[in-house]
Amino acid sequence: MARRQHGVVARRDLLRIGFSSKEIERRIARGRLHPITRGVYSVGRRELSPKGRWMAAVLACGENACLSHRSAGALYGICEERGGVIEVSVRGTGEPRRRGLRVRTRPALPWREVGTLDRVPITSPVQTMIDLATELPPRFMPRAVNEADKLEVIAADDLRLALEDRVGQPGVRALVALLDKDTFVLTQEELERLFLPLVREVGLALPRAGETVNGFEVDFFWPELGLVVETDGLRYHRTPSAQAKDARRDQAHTAAGFARLRFTHWQVKHERDYVKRILGETAGRLTRRG
C-alpha cells in the first residue's frame, strides 16, 4: 500500500494510487483496514507499536506535519512524552484538532529542520532540543542534553555552534545559558593562569603540569602528595572511546595508590572557593596520611 509505514496508511494516499472510497470501505468491513483516527488506518490489525502511534499522529495532521517537542524527544530517546499526549508540528496555517494530540501550527519552521527517523517525519535534533527547552523544566534539560550526546543524537558542542544561527527563537537563550556553562572551555594557558593562583592560595607547592603519570598525560601532578588533578572542558561531550580512556586512566592512578580530583573548566573560573576547598581538604588528608 502507498506510504504504509509502521503498519499505518493515510486515506489520501490510498486515493492517490487509485483506490475508490467504496474499495476503502470494503477493506474496512473485511478487517483489512482499521480506522485509527479520521483519514488514517492501521493495516491488518488494530494494535499499533509506539512508532505506529507516532506515524498515525503525523499522518492525521497532513503532509506538512512532523513529530516534535517531547514526542520527538521520545523517538530520539532523550526524554519521555507527557501523559501519553503526542505532539506534532505542522508547517502551514490553520491548526488541525485531533483528540489525544497537541498540534502546533508553525508556518515559519524551515524545511531544513524537518527530517525522518525510522521513517517517521520528525524535527531535526537541533530544533528538537530548542523546542524541549521551551517545554521541559530547567532541571531536566541537562539530562536531555546529556542523553542526546550519549546516544549520538547531537553532541553538545555541535548543538552550541548550531544555536548561533537561531538567536531569537524561543528556547535558544535558555539552551545557550546551559551549554555555555557545561561546555565551557579554556585554553591550556588560560587554565594554568587561573588554576595556579588557587593552588598558591591553598598553600600548596606548584604542581607539575602536562606530566606523564602511569602512562597517561595529566593536567596537574603533585608527586610528593600522590595527587593527580584533571580538568574537563566538555562535561557532556564524552564519546564511548573517551569514556573508556578516562576509566583506564583513573584505574591506573588508583592502582598506583594516587588520589584523583577532577574539576570542570567552568569550576576553575567561576567556582573558585569550591575548587580551593576541595583541593585544600584533599591535600590536607593526603599530608596527614603521608
Structure description:
The structure is a single chain. The chain has helices spanning 11-16, 21-29, 50-60, 69-76, 125-135, 141-150, 156-162, 172-182, 188-202, 240-255, 265-270, 272-289; strands at residues 8-10, 33-37, 40-43, 65-67, 86-90, 101-105, 114-117, 120-123, 208-209, 212-213, 216-217, 220-222, 227-232, 259-264. β12 and β13 (227-232) form a beta hairpin. It has a 4-stranded mixed sheet with strand order 9-12-13-14, sandwiched between helices. A 3-stranded antiparallel sheet has the order 1-3-2. The model has no long low-confidence stretch (mean pLDDT 89). With 290 residues, the protein is α+β, with helices and mostly antiparallel strands. It has 3 domains: 1-48, no CATH class; 50-182, no CATH class; 188-289, Endonuclease, Chain A (3-Layer(aba) Sandwich), CATH 3.40.960. The chain is 44% helix and 19% strand.
Mean pLDDT: 89
Q: Tell me the series of helices and strands, N- to C-terminal.
A: EHHEEHEHEEEEHHHHHEEEEEHEHH
Percentage of residues in DSSP E strands: 15-25%
| Separation of the first and last Cα atoms | 76 Å
Outline, from the CA principal axes?
A: elongated
Report the sheet with the most strands, covering strand number, pairing sense and barrel closure: 4 strands, mixed
Spatial strand sequence of the major β-sheet: 9-12-13-14
- Counted up, domains total 3
Low-confidence stretches: none
Helix coverage percent of residues?
40-55%
Q: Which structural class best describes the helix and strand composition?
A: alpha+beta
Strand segment tally: 14
**Estimated radius of gyration:** 27 Å
Q: Given the structure, what is the number of helices?
A: 12
